[in-house]
Every structure is written in C-alpha cells, then in structure tokens.
Amino acid sequence: MTNLTPREIVSELDRFIIGQKDAKRAVAVALRNRWRRKQLSDDIREEVYPKNILMIGPTGVGKTEISRRLAKLAKAPFLKVEATKFTEVGYVGRDVEQIIRDLVDAAIAMTRELMREKVKATAHSAAEDRVIDALAGDNAREQTREMFRKKLRAGELDDKEIELEVADTSSPFPMMDIPGQPGMMGGGVNLGDIFGKAFGGRKTRRRMSVAASYQLLITEEADKLLDTEAVTREAIEAVEQNGIVFIDEIDKVCARAETRGADVSREGVQRDLLPLIEGTTVSTKHGPVKTDHVLFIASGAFHIAKPSDLLPELQGRLPIRVELRALTEADFVRILTETDNALTRQYKALMATEGVGIDFTDDGIRALARIAAEVNSTVENIGARRLYTVLERVFEELSFTAPDRDGEKVTVDATFVEKYLSELARSTDLSRYVL
Ligand SMILES: Nc1ncnc2c1ncn2[C@@H]1O[C@H](COP(=O)(O)OP(=O)(O)OP(=O)(O)O)[C@@H](O)[C@H]1O
C-alpha cells in the first residue's frame, strides 16, 4: 500500500506516460482512496467501495499503460483481460470468474517475489553452503571450506562447473481439470503439485557453472523458507484489498446483438461481469476471494457504441469517466525523448551492448514522430504503438550489422530516417504491410 499523494502519483506516472492528465488524476485519486479507506475505523471501512473507472479513448494512447504503471507503483496485483474474450465460442457465463482466479495467481507470484526478497540474506548463505558442498565435497574440513568460501566470494570460481541436486520443476503430470468441481474450472489441478508434495518433491542432478547455479539455489532456498500458506494468505489479502482489474474493449460487448450459434450474447457478458464488479465471492483453488474492494478499470474506444449503451447497472458501477485523447506528432516527440523508458533510450542501450554509439538529433526525432503520425493518419491510427514499428524499421539494418560495427558512431538525423523510411511512408500500400 502506497501512501503517495495524488499529486505524487501523477508525477510518477508522468515519468512514463505523456499527457492524458484526466486519466492520471482519476487513477491517482482511486489509489489514494484506498489509502484513505485503510485509515478508517473497521465499521465504516467495510462500507466504502472503490469508485471504478471507465477510460474512453482510441487504441494505443496509454489506457493500459497508465493502469499497469499504477499497479506497479502500488505493488498491487494487476490483471488485464479483453471483454470480447468472453464472447468467443465455448465460453460460458461463469468463466468471467476466471479473471479473479488469474488475479490470485498473479498475486501469488508477486507476493512470493516480495517475500523472497525478505528472506534473501538467509537464502543466500544457505545457497553458498550448497555450492561449497558441491565444490569441496560433503566431508571436507572446515579449513578447506573456508578457502573455497573466500575464493567464491571473490568471484574466482564463477566459471567452474559443478554438479548439483536441484528440485525438478518439470512436471511429468499433465494439468487436469476435475469435472464438476466448482472453482477448478480452467484453473486445473496440477497433479505434480499434489504428488510432488506427498513424496517430498523430485530431485534431479544438473551440471552448471558456479555463477549460474547461484540464482537457482537462492530461489530454491528462499522457497524453502517461505511458508506457502502465508504466501497464499497474503496474496488473497492483496487481491481483496488492492487488486486492480483492467477490462479492455468493454465497448465491444455493448452493441445489443442477438445470440448467434454458440456465441454468447454481448449483453450476457456484461451481466456476467456485473456481480464481479458489484462485489461477490469467487471460489478459487486457494480459497474464497471477495471482490468487493477490487478496483475495476474498464476501457474502450467507444467509436460506435456509447457508454450509455452499457447496461444501466454497469454504468452505475463505473461512475468515473475519463477521456484520453488521440496522440499528436508533438506527443510522439515527447514520448521519444522525455519518458524514462523512451524507445530512443532503449535502442541506444541495445546498440551500446555491441559497441555501437547512437546519437539522435532533434531533427531525427522530429522525422520519426512526423512519419509515425503520417502513417497513423493514412493507414490506421494505432497511437504510440506506431513508434515501435517505425523505429524497428529504421534500425533494421543496424540491428543486423551491429556486431560487425564495434566502435562506430551512428547519428540518427532526418537524413538517416528518410533513407530508411521515406519511400515506405509515402506509399500507403507498402506501409500497410511494413509499418
Ligand atoms: N501517452 C503515452 N505516453 C507514452 N507512451 C505511450 C502513451 N500512450 C501509449 N504509449 C505506449 O504505447 C503502447 C500501447 O499503449 P497502451 O497499451 O496503453 O494502449 P491502450 O490505450 O491501452 O490501447 P488498447 O485499448 O488498444 O489496449 C505502450 O507501450 C505505451 O507505453
């Protein structure tokens, strides 16, 4: 749980997402409200439900990114699903509950990772002992072990090969659904889990370098220290109190189309989603999970259907509406230069691993942004995702030849960009396929 103020949350989001102020403010308030709720006395706390959010805006403008970054900031379990998934053939109403089961799985992975960090120091020394056992043998004298320990810590033995007995994580048992078992649907039961535990887990011997063995052993030792039940308990608590579910393409289940064949009616999907959003208890293989305080962020372009076409009950459950605007050429320039994870930074870092220095000039960046905006307007507007295809194309040749160009400096200016892109961008037909 973060105690950042809304202003601080927005400024954290600003590091990764350009513009979209309203959406950032809305999610920042939603997160702060959770903190506020935590401060309340028990009786009133249970009464305060999250105000879910409806994000309206074209594709690729930051809807998912804002939600994902928010979850990361809050260390909250996060899951993204497409509402249309539930209209596919073979889906039945109850399947929406799978959303919560998947969220629990995500939370368990996240919680385990966080708790692993806490037991890392202890796990580290246990892992070190196992490596020394492998190097020196079980019956080695203490002096010999200390000698190995010193060398090990100095990194002198990193490349040495050792053979270790480690847990076998590959399961010979298939995932099986137990028919008629509530709460197991789609989740399946891993027989390996059951038998693995019953028989104390299978072991396998593997050869690897000392350096490579470390991470594996630390994870294994940390897992031994982690109490599975405590992890599950904390994970479920995290889902119930902090979980965030992002439901994309909610507008696509708006049109009140009739059921055809095995296709579930779209309105049906809304009806199925409703209890989850209103608050229900979902049974999972880890136990029951209440969804009352999970934050739902629904999103859609709403080009054809309007939010008022959603079921009234659903509209009521998504009281906060925010619009995200289409991105412009000027936004692209900022996305390429100002964000912490800017693509220009990524390519620079990637090429640096090959010893190739990359320098982006201002006119180079402007050319990239202009071409991305042009292709978006002529072919299809896919928002900032266009920058990925454009940059990949510009760097294609360099990416391939970089290993032979160690020590070179490359300046990405307007001429460089034009050389690889101008012809493509001018031909709508071509760019339809390549960009
Ligand atoms: N405003 C923005 N600032 C920086 N990067 C952005 C912005 N909008 C989108 N991006 C980048 O573009 C990619 C796609 O964005 P995102 O997944 O948020 O799209 P979306 O709006 O959720 O669309 P969809 O509804 O189709 O999923 C992400 O990698 C994201 O980093």
UniProtKB/TrEMBL annotation:
Superkingdom of origin organism: Bacteria
Residue intervals of the Clp ATPase C-terminal domain: 327-416
First-listed, main subcellular location of the protein, grouped into a coarse class: cytoplasm
Family label: Belongs to the ClpX chaperone family. HslU subfamily.
Quaternary state and interactors: A double ring-shaped homohexamer of HslV is capped on each side by a ring-shaped HslU homohexamer. The assembly of the HslU/HslV complex is dependent on binding of ATP.
Keywords: ATP-binding, Chaperone, Cytoplasm, Hydrolase, Nucleotide-binding, Protease
This protein's name: ATP-dependent protease ATPase subunit HslU
A GO term, aspect molecular function: ATP binding
Annotated PANTHER family: ATP-DEPENDENT CLP PROTEASE ATP-BINDING SUBUNIT CLPX-LIKE, MITOCHONDRIAL-RELATED, ATP-DEPENDENT PROTEASE ATPASE SUBUNIT HSLU
Subcellular location: Cytoplasm
GO biological process annotation, one example: protein unfolding
Organism, as annotated: Amaricoccus solimangrovi
UniProt key word Protease: yes
InterPro entries per record: AAA+_ATPase, ATP-dep_Clp_protease_ClpX, ATPase_AAA_core, Clp_ATPase_C, HslU, P-loop_NTPase
Domain AAA+ ATPase: 49-324
Gene name per UniProt: hslU
Entries under CDD domains matching the protein: RecA-like_HslU (cd19498)
Binding site for ATP: 18, 60-65, 248, 313, 385
Summary of the function given for this chain in its UniProt record: ATPase subunit of a proteasome-like degradation complex; this subunit has chaperone activity. The binding of ATP and its subsequent hydrolysis by HslU are essential for unfolding of protein substrates subsequently hydrolyzed by HslV. HslU recognizes the N-terminal part of its protein substrates and unfolds these before they are guided to HslV for hydrolysis.
UniProt cross-references to NCBIfam families, sorted A to Z: hslU, PRK05201.1
This protein's GO CC annotations: HslUV protease complex
